## 1
Amino acid sequence: MALTLSLGLLSQPTIANDAKATADAKPSFEQYIVKIKQEALAKGFEQALIDTSFANVVFHQRAVKADRNQPETVETLDTYLPKRLPDWKIKRARAKYKEHEALLNKVAEEYGVQPRFIVALWGLETNFGKIMGNYNVVSALSTMAYEGRREAFFKKELWAALNILKADHISIDKMKGSWAGAMGQNQFMPTSFVAYAVDGDGDGKKDIWTNQADVFASMANYLKKEGWSDEITWGRQVKLPSDFDTSLAIPNNTGGRKNWLKAWAKTEKTLAQWQALGVRRTDGTNLPNVDIKAALVFPDGKKGRAYLAYDNYKSLMQWNLSYYFVSSVGHLSDHIKYPPIQ
């Protein structure tokens, strides 16, 4: 302890000087944008596109604050789900399903994704297109790149945004999104747009901001490309016996999607095997007698809810690596399906 304290005292002037030097060395936001524009030119973007895209770029201190002050997780699913899925949202989801049923069925037939999941994602991402964010996406991404903690990530997103503008899918004044650059009614990051967005109605543009056909088709294409199957659902909450071996579940902290998928592969079993281990539906009845595999997950740890997750769960975890998000999508999709919409 004495050594640590002494070292701390001795290093204080040096730390202060280093911090000042770092602050002095960092360019202004305006200088950074000049450098970014030079990089864009070197990457082959035309000067006219660069000038137009960055003409009104500004630094958003609110975006930096939002990134640094994201709330810590203090919820459980028992408190989280009622907030994310209030009665009005469930009713609106069912009404939106009915309203867009013809288009949703067309998309479902083409991509093999059940419409209820498209509507659930739509509702949870942007309240059915009502809350998409009002940040200029180039400004938001430039701000986050300048902030520096994830510069490489946000610069990659920025180049993708320029490619979207280059392809004339959207104009710079209408390219709005969240403080982190997530865009449109499905909140695609620009790289996700490039990878998954599709022209749903054949008008030559991929418009996830105002074109419902493009929004739904792009969401379905995302899930399809991430392995979705319309022959199964997402998963189900289950009941475990009192003496159940909880080590059979995926560990809660695997450290990223890659390790999570490895844990999935090690722990998945057939429904018949889970049945033999005493796993049951929440009402105590037997699991479905179908030949599919599932992994066991504990979103709130071993003392919280237990879910058997089917392969489609993995596709939703690619969309957002969060048990809480996936649970909310799954439960909302179930509310859309049951009782049947007349």
Note: The chain has a mean pLDDT of 91.
## 2
Amino acid sequence: MQALPLSPTTPPAEAAPAPHADRFKPARAKPALQQAGALPAGPSRLNRTLRWFAFEAVPPLLGLALFILLWQAASLYSDGLPGPAKTWAAAVELFADPFYDKGPNDQGIGWNILHSLERVGLGFGMAALIGIPAGFVIGRFAFIGKMAAPIISLLRPVSPLAWLPIGLMVFKAAGPASIWVIFISSIWPMILNTAAGVSQVPKDYLNVARVLNLPESKVFTKILFPAVLPHMITGIRLAIGVAWLVIVAAEMLTGGIGLGFWVWDEWNNLNVEHILIAIFVVGIVGLLLEQALVLLARRFEY
């Protein structure tokens, strides 16, 4: 028999690669332009810094500059409104000695800030001690949640200052009445956010706890608290904003030492520069409180 010729399209058999042959392959040469330094390997540190400055730092600076320009323009067309330069000079003089004490009705702005923070801390602390556990109970037990729903719906929309006469009647003093207003106005965000977080815990977790016969204390520490913590901190952030917002108005009505009373006293003295300074102080302190709670939320995020 005559042997059949091999097809010209049949590829020749390839030899099996030797073991560990990749170790002996020469390194791939870089392009000539990259070797010469004409093409950078990636964005340099200077480029990253410029990009960050352009997209992160420039917009806030432009916003502040626009605000100052509008303020200056408004001061030019208003006889009683001081401009940024005059307000800055008054602020430098005011904060040169913020803790002077010349009697109960004449104290530095530092003492007024500390007294306002003290009242906010007391009212907010009591609201947290009562509101957070109440939120857990309301969210955990449906029957109690239905009982509390009409009371919360009725009292939550009430203006905080409407509670001030009740506090004056009960406590017979302006200081405790201001703390009462802070308490009653900051308790609702903590109750509602905590209860909402408890109600959103997956039912499978609670079913497993029921199958394992976990006591209620273990259910709280191992399941509810870690899951509800983000909602709870959100309620705390909202509550501290409301508390700091209300304290100025409450102190305007009750008097004594505090930022609210200081603003009202400066208005009676027709010192508009100090009123503007107090507005900025209230905003800066509120911003610092908010940022502190944001850092706390990031630290305890589950």
Note: The CA atoms of residues 5 and 56 lie 75 Å apart.
## 3
Amino acid sequence: MDWGAYAPVVVGCAGPQLSAEERVLFGVRKPLGLILFARNIVDPAQVKALVADFRGVVGNRFAPVLIDQEGGRVARLKPPHWPVFPRGAAFGEIYARDPAAAEEAAYLNYRWIGAVLTDLGIDVDCAPVADVPVEGAHDVIGDRAYGRDADIVGLVAEAVMRGLSDAGVMPVIKHIPGHGRSRTDSHLDLPVVDTSAEILERSDFLPFVTLRHAPWAMTAHIVYSAYDHVLPATLSPNVINRVIRSRIGFDGVLISDDLTMKALKGAPAVTGPASLRAGCDLVLHCSGDLPEMQALFAALPAMSREAVRRVGKARNALPQPRPFTEAERARYQTLMEQVSV
């Protein structure tokens, strides 16, 4: 597979089918992957058709198709066609009573989510959330997190990763190097974290160190003043190279969070190339805005040699899906009986 033939971007589309204009743009510019949102989802048959159509248009049957299916309030697939899955905090609540049960429940939960995704042709889930919220932080992470203890978050997130991988789905750890201290929603403004490097390295970064072998990770649009007083992690060579690649030791595919979030100032055609220059392998453009995508594609360089290596390595390491059995489903339901979703 010549991954270098594809643009280093994962795009959204406007609706439940590719428009004629999107088909032309994607066929010519060849984005590496697609990300799905609620606006793109009607029912299983439609999702399968959209996924297959995108891969046909870009000429790559292995083109990554992403979705945010964490469970709880971040779930693009909803009833009546798909189950309700619990919020991340549920596994921290189980952990307080029985650590082994929490890890098993998290594993089985994401085995089930992974089976749902695999059935639709989706092969990348933007989970686990490895952020560690602190007192007074904005609720943008909140109950999406597995707890407030870095070690517990790392252990549960590791089980989440194994569950997705065993289902044939690549996990994306987020939001590296940690969104838990943000007092602002990065969808709306740029958060600044003034915490010292010493504290960050012995708390916020720890789950990501545990998960450093993950195939993919998504950056945080946050300024970490201890490392860069001006630029958020997504745009900061210092944070990406010194923290994410060196201190944390992550060598998988690094994708930006959505370029259209208000934390990033400037058009995606400017911030996209800047994030690649800073050290991201790929950028993420979610809105489906056609003129913005056209401008972004025109501004993007070719995928770097390291990005090609990492994308290929992640894909080659993906196991064959293992069916989610009725026995596993029954065990999962027993583990979750006393937990509110």
Note: DSSP finds twelve helices and twelve strands in the chain.
